[in-house]
Specification:
245 residues, mainly alpha, two-stranded parallel ribbon
Length: 245
């Protein structure tokens, strides 16, 4: 299987796996969800997180370098590999976070309450989590991934699923980009950074109070314009800022 097709498979697998991982983390462990409700995580509407898909591709490419002996000692080479994975994943997370804030004026996640955080985008605890995921991939997945990808490439049904994924993913990406464009326009007008998850939560609470169905997948679906929710959520952000002061 050529490299492009391999990375296409890995992006799909990583995006879906990352979404599942985030789904359960936010349900059972996240302090920002004290009611432990099921929350659709991430930028997109569907069950995929591109950050994890990109991360898995990076891990795959880095793991391919283990055939080179850099230090002459196996344990040192492996330690160097894991540290490189941790750093690369943290850098990817920082770049994605800073682009969302500076370009789209949207904050997708916030580590401001975590020790050692940088701009609320990265922090030591989650960098360590990236390191653990990198180690799990390197030792438990990568040794078998070539055979698995080879088998999948021969399975036409799975190839159809991959094609379907990218078709739906691109439509979802365009739809989500349109939502973010509306948020950016609001953020530019009011000189704020929109907290993506806060808007989702606000819409959810609004529908719960109104006795209407809460949509898990279509978290931004509402009977009133998005800008009205943004205005209401902005008041919450301002109050939160005052409490922090």
């Amino acid at each position: 299987m050529n490299l492009f097709l391999t990375l296409a498979f890995l992006f799909f697998i990583g995006s879906v796996f990352g979404w599942v991982l985030e789904l359960f983390f936010r349900k059972f462990f996240s302090s920002s969800n004290p009611e432990h409700k099921w929350i659709n995580p991430g930028f997109c509407t569907g069950p995929w997180l591109p950050l994890y898909g990109s991360g898995l591709c990076i891990l795959f490419l880095l793991s391919g370098l283990d055939r080179y002996e850099l230090t002459g000692r196996l344990w040192a080479d492996r330690l160097l590999m894991l540290l490189t994975m941790l750093i690369c994943m943290t850098v990817i997370e920082y770049i994605a976070g800073i682009l969302c804030i500076k370009v789209a004026k949207v904050r997708l996640w916030d580590y401001s309450n975590s020790w050692g955080n940088i701009q609320g985008i990265i922090c030591p605890a989650f960098s360590l989590a990236w390191g653990v995921l990198g180690a799990a991939y390197y030792f438990l997945v990568h040794p078998y991934i070539q055979d698995a990808l080879g088998w999948l490439s021969q399975n036409l049904a799975f190839s159809f699923v991959i094609g379907l994924f990218y078709g739906v993913f691109l439509v979802d990406l365009v739809h989500s980009a349109q939502l973010v464009a509306k948020m950016k326009a609001f953020a530019d007008e009011h000189n704020v950074i929109v907290r993506y998850e806060d808007v989702k939560m606000h819409i959810r609470q609004f529908r719960e109070r109104a006795g209407k169905r809460v949509w898990f997948i279509f978290a931004f679906y509402s009977d009133i314009p998005l800008v009205e929710h943004l205005k209401a959520a902005r008041e919450t952000w301002e109050e939160r800022i005052e409490r922090r002061k």
